[in-house]
């Protein structure tokens, strides 16, 4: 889902662990939180990811609580058309990004 906002705080919608927080060329700054919920089809843990962030307030491996500030929305990455927050829920973080030609930077 894309929400037109800029430089607004982003809060964790659920308790979880930061699976990854870094930068990808197309997604820009991102935070991915692994939750305890599971996908009913694959039984994999669900991951909520936030893309195109101006900045990140959390690091990989950190535990987060529901309502904790994790980032600030922005306009980073090559696959953005303007300031917004993109959030997605996916059952498999690495497969869902599927960007083997890009290098991750933390």
Automatic annotation (TrEMBL):
GO MF terms, alphabetically ordered: metalloendopeptidase activity
InterPro entries: Cell_wall_metabolism_enzyme, Dup_hybrid_motif, M23ase_b-sheet_dom
Record Pfam families: Peptidase_M23
Start and end residues of each M23ase beta-sheet core domain: 2-86
Domain of life: Bacteria
Region (Disordered) residue spans: 62-106
Name of this chain's protein: M23 family metallopeptidase
């Amino acid at each position: 889902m894309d929400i037109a906002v800029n430089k607004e705080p982003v809060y964790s919608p659920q308790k979880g662990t930061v699976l990854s927080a870094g930068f990808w060329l197309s997604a820009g700054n991102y935070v991915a939180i692994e939750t305890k919920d599971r996908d009913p089809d694959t039984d994999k843990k669900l991951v909520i990811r936030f893309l195109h962030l101006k900045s990140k307030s959390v690091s990989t491996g950190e535990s987060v609580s529901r309502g904790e500030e994790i980032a600030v929305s922005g306009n980073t990455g090559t696959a953005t058309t303007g300031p917004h927050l993109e959030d997605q829920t996916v059952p498999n973080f690495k497969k869902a990004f599927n960007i083997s030609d890009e290098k991750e930077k933390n």
